[in-house]
Amino acid sequence: IFYSLTFFSLILIRFSCATSSLFFFSLLLFLFPLSSIFFFFLMIRRPPRSTLSSSSAASDVYKRQTMRFSPEADHGGNAGLGWARNMLEPVKAKYPEISYADLYVFAGKVAIESMGGPEIGFKPGRSDVDGPAPPAKGSVHSPDGRLPDGDKGPQHLRDIFYRMGFNDQEIVALSGAHATGRCHTDRSGFWGPWTYSPSTFSNEYYRLLLEEKWTPKKDHDGKPWNGDSNPQLESPDKKLMMLYTDMALVQDPKFKPWVEKYAANEDLFFKDFASAFQKLSELGCKSLGSSSGGSGMDTKVAAGMAVAAPLIGGLIKQVVGK
Questions:
Q1: Fewest C-beta in 10 Å: which of 201, 220, 255, 286?
Q2: Element (H, E) at 241
Q3: What is the reported pTM?
Q4: What are the strands of the beta sheet with 20-22, ordered from one edge?
Q5: Is 26 exposed, middle or buried (0-12, 13-18, 19+ CB in 10 A)?
Q6: Which of 171, 135, 141, 144 is nearest to 155 (CA)?
Q7: Distance between CA 214 and CA 242 in Å, rounded?
C-alpha cells in the first residue's frame, strides 16, 4: 500500500486470480509482525506484458502466478511472509471451500476493520494454484524487484502504481496504511514504526509527515547506522521513522495537497482508502461474485467468510497483544 505497507504496504501476496496475479504480501517488506496480516493484501501485479497473449501458454501463465510457492516465495520482498501465511492455515483448514487467494484478501479487510479502519468491500471468487511452476517454466512467475523501494522518490512511486492504474490521490491514500506496523532490520533492513500507535488505523501518519522534523538516521542502539544501504529518517525523539518514499509525499507538489487533506480529515482518508484498497484487491479479477453472494458457490463462500471473520479478528488481536 499498499507498499510496505500496506501498507503496507503498503503497502505489502502473490497468488492466481483467474486472469492475473495478486500479491498482497508485498509491503511486509516493511511491516511486521502486525501488518503481516494487513499487508498480505496491499499490491496487485500483472504478468510481464511479454508473456500475455491469447494462446494456451498465456493461460498457463495466469494459472501459475503465485507467491505461495518458489520462486516467488523466496523473493527478498516477501521475507517473513511464511509466518503470516502459517497463521491463517487453521482458518483455511476449517473452511476449505475458501480459496487461499480469497482468504488472504479477506484477512486484510478484517485486519483493517479490527484496527479501527474503514469497512472494506469484499467479493469472493479468486482462484489458487496447486504448486510451483516446473523449473523450465520459472519465467512465468513475476520477476523479483517489482515492489516499491523505500529509498526512492516520487517518480518511483508513480512508476510502480501508475502501471496498476492508480492516480496520485490513490497513491497517497494507500500510503496511509503506514499508520500501522513497523519496519524490522531482519526483513527490510529498515527499523521502527511510523506512528506512536502502530496497531491503530488512523490518519496520524499524515499529521506526523507534516508536523515532525525528520532527519537522516545516523545511529541505532549505540552503533552507527548504515545509511548507505538502508537510508531512512527519524523523528527528534528517535522513536519513529519515515522512509524516503514517505517523504516524497510531502516533497512532491501533486502528492502534498492530498497529504494535507487526509491529515485534516480522517473521514475523507477512510473513504478514499477503502475505495483504493478494494480496487487494488480486485485488479485483474474478472469473475468475482457479489458482496452478498450470488451463485450457490458464492453464497457458500460468503457464509464461510462470515464465520471465519471472528477467527481472523482473534488472530489479529493476538498479534496486537505481542
A1: 286
A2: strand 241-242
A3: 0.77
A4: 15-17, 20-22, 44-45
A5: buried
A6: 171
A7: 8
